Amino acid sequence: MTWFNFQPKLNHRKDQGLYRSRHTLASPQTPEIWCEGKKYLAFCSNNYLGLANHPDIVSAFQQGANRFGVGGGASHLIIGHSTPHHQLEEELAAFTGRERTLLFANGYMANLGVISALLGKSDAIFLDRLNHASLLDAGKLSGARFHRYRHSCCEHLKDRLKKSHTKRKLVVTDGVFSMDGHVALLPQLADISYKHDAWLMVDDAHGFGFLGKNGGGSAEHFGLSQQKVPVLMGTLSKAFGVYGAFVAGSHELIETLIQFARTYIYTTSIPPAIAEASRVSLKLVQRENWRREHLNDLIHYFCQGCDALNIQRIQSTTPIHPIPVGSAKVATKISHALAESGILVTAIRPPTVPPNTSRLRISLTAAHTRNHVDRLLSALKQATQQHLCEEG
């Protein structure tokens, strides 16, 4: 059947400079890694607090596997809900200041499950234009009337909400935008949502663990209660260095998700050992404030270094620092040049970002040092000068 010939489509993607390839890692998620037989200094991991290889978390995982086995065995509603899952949900609820939480396999599944459970064809969803793909997919799959407002533009959101006459309205935003590093204007979004009788949902995958005095994410950072942010999603796979996701909110919300969120009902639970490891990670996030302090120091140091070397960057106060390039092909060339000098930085290209906004996405972690940042800055200056000048 000739319509199964995908090679022309693949070739077209290569011609556009959009073809993606996988790196095969042969070491833990640390700043200095082994990848395909070569040692690199990596700045492309979401392991923001440097916990992915923490010995206490590794030990908790091993002990959890010894006690509970490896697989979850079934969905939560059959026989897959183990003691560690339940304990982690209670501890996350206390940590986020919410009545309850519910574990999901990952952030993508959480977003799909929540939005499809809360909305239907007679409802409306309002999404920031730079929201994560999982939120956009969830909005479309829900069947709700689909509205997108300009990035961080509260006036545009107000206008959209005013024109909507649906009974149920859900405003959805990233807490930290994963490709730009911007922090959402949550206090304003919460007020606008409340005034227009809408709920606010925050995907805090990239803010949870880093933002807030105790690492409670963007909601804690802005002091927003459950009433202000009725639906809070966080992941355990980034700053927490483990795996999985959760949704936090009222008792009524969680019971609704248990009954109607298909990605919860019909998915095997995460391994209990992962839940045990996450419980230890949660304690470390709360106890070891030095990780956030050190990471903030590195963020300021990197920004100052970029400014001193005239390296153009998108302004960010988070661990995510995009270097705008524009052309997908040039972004790929710069990424390859950095790799040749022993530095791994990912080239982000469409469709992850809009056309002509390709970039290098640098992510700093608490496991990096100033010396690591100095090496990055030196290599970055040389690679960007060479290839951007060639393009110019």
Largest sheet: 7 strands, mixed
Q: Write down the oligomeric state.
A: single chain
| Spatial sequence of strands, sheet with the most strands | 3-9-8-7-6-4-5
Approximate shape: globular
Roughly what fraction of the amino acids lie in strands?
15-25%
H/E series: HEEHHHEHEHEHEHEHEEHHHHEHEEEH
Low-confidence stretches: none
User: Helix segment count?
Assistant: 15
The structure class reads alpha/beta
Number of strands: 13
Radius of gyration: 21 Å
Mean pLDDT: 95
| Alpha-carbon distance between the two ends | 45 Å
Helix content: 40-55%
List keywords for this structure.
392 residues, alpha/beta, 15 helices, 16% strand, 13 strands, three-stranded mixed sheet
Q: Would you kindly provide a written description of the structure presented here, covering whatever features stand out?
A:
By secondary structure, this protein is an alpha/beta fold. Helices cover 44% and strands 16% of the residues. It is built from 15 helices and 13 strands. The protein has helices at 7-15, 55-68, 76-80, 83-96, 107-118, 133-142, 154-162, 186-195, 218-222, 251-260, 262-265, 272-287, 290-308, 328-340, 370-391, and strands at 32-35, 38-42, 100-104, 124-128, 145-149, 169-174, 199-203, 231-235, 245-249, 320-326, 343-344, 346-348, 358-363. The strands form three sheets. Strands 3-9-8-7-6-4-5 form a seven-stranded mixed β-sheet, with helices on both faces. Strands 1-2-11 form a three-stranded mixed β-sheet. Helix 5 runs parallel beside helix 6. The N and C termini lie far apart (45 Å). The mean pLDDT is 95.
